[in-house]
Amino acid sequence: MIKLLILLLIAVVAFLPIYLLYLKSPPPLPEVDLNAWWGHGEPKEDTAIKPYKIKFTESVVKDLKDRLKSRRPFTPPLEGVAFEYGFNTNTLDSWATYWLEKYNFTERENFLNQYPQYKTNIQGLNIHFIRVTPKVPAGKQLVPMLLLHGWPGSVREFYEAIPHLTAVSEDRDFVLELIIPSLPGYGHSEASVRPGLNPLSIAVIFRNLMQRLGFQKYYIQGGDWGSLITSNMATLFPKEVLGYHTNLIFLLTPTVTFFELLGSIYPPLVVDRQLADRMYPQSEVYSFMLEESGYMHIQATKPDTVGISLLDSPSGLMAYILEKFSTWTRKEHRSKVDGGLEFRFTKDQLIDNLMMYWTTRSITTSMRLYSECFNKKYMALKMDEIPTKVPTWTIQGKNELGYLPPWLIKLKYPNLVKDNPIDDGGHFLALELPQVFSEDVLNAVQAFRQWHKSSSIKTDL
Ligand SMILES: *[C@@H]1O[C@H](CO)[C@@H](O)[C@H](O)[C@H]1NC(C)=O
């Protein structure tokens, strides 16, 4: 009897990979409403594109300073504790003082306004975006690319990368034109007034934004939520999206989970030996996930409750957001009293990003995206299990929150042109290593253009 059971078990284990890889059919492509209305009132089209500038008004700055000044003394950290219990309050105190006394609001406002920004209404929401159109010398082609940030980031993450990305080079026959929007409910983009604006619906919004700007075909790039949203754009609109570049590749599917587990028996089954420590031992990966994903559970269930105090307290918002810039850049930063925040970032850079949330009072609406994604309705779409033929390129930082080997990436993106597992860099790659990030994006677009030249369906971009 036992022998029979063991035989049966072996048969199942042997058959499961075959089923998962070759027999299981993908879920259907969901039907999307290209005109869903997320704003107040009756649908009413307004196609105007209006120039926009970020303003730190006197009253907003005065109110912020008053709040920072009147902050109550923080609870001191435990003896010998750095960031292990959360943001170190001694460090927070010095950062809050910097925000109050040293952060030059006028200078930073000018800095943030250095690139042209606009707003246009898409499906009822005023969407904010940066658009950088470089001058193109004769013989070079202007090629549009959409860049999308995530949480708790903003368009600010791309500022240092923009000059690299838009540079004219002898090595390339194209120059990138960049469209960098704020996600709906983030920073200067308006939030939905009703439930349901999930990463699929946001993909529709940004596809419509590109159409509004006259781009029928374009390249896309994203990290964090931006990665998921641009992935959905590639899945939904493969005729429009010419190439997909991401610095966060994450696939929540039974097949990927199965092989990740299988690899824990013997990692070389699933991953190159020299990259195995990015996936294994799985116990380490899971305990890190448990220790660091509490915020996700809160935001997926009660974003409005936690949002109340974050909206009210600049030091609270600072701790909540900057803790992520510490830990997601390097895990080891948890044991540093200063959180390693200035290892690759400056105070001004990180406070600029906070200002995107503070001045627009968008922290609650930004966190709601977790609730709109981690629910039965969105999960039932199984977007990660629907393959897309859009050529894809991944760059995976050594300190990113996860790693996937190319052959598993290909289950969703069969036309993976390249995976670039770099030996540096964390979650906020564009901000941390702007040059490395930009070069990789440009190499990807170069390769995508080559790919299109040799494919049957030609494109002139
Ligand atoms: C802040 O920046 C503005 C504009 O760059 C400059 O004129 C001003 O002197 C700065 N203020 C301080 C206190 O440094």
UniProtKB/TrEMBL annotation:
Its EC number is 3.3.2.9. It holds the Pfam family EHN. Its main location: endoplasmic reticulum. It is an enzyme of class 3 (hydrolase). It is found in: Endoplasmic reticulum membrane; Microsome membrane. Keywords: Aromatic hydrocarbons catabolism, Endoplasmic reticulum, Hydrolase, Membrane. It catalyses: 1-(4-methoxyphenyl)-N-methyl-N-[(3-methyloxetan-3-yl)methyl]methanamine + H2O = 2-{[(4-methoxybenzyl)(methyl)amino]methyl}-2-methylpropane-1,3-diol; cis-stilbene oxide + H2O = (1R,2R)-hydrobenzoin. The keyword Membrane applies. The keyword Membrane applies. Residues 49-158 form the Epoxide hydrolase N-terminal domain. It is a single-pass membrane protein. Catalyzes juvenile hormone hydrolysis. PANTHER family: EPOXIDE HYDROLASE, EPOXIDE HYDROLASE 1-RELATED. Belongs to the peptidase S33 family. This is Epoxide hydrolase. It comes from Chilo suppressalis (Asiatic rice borer moth).
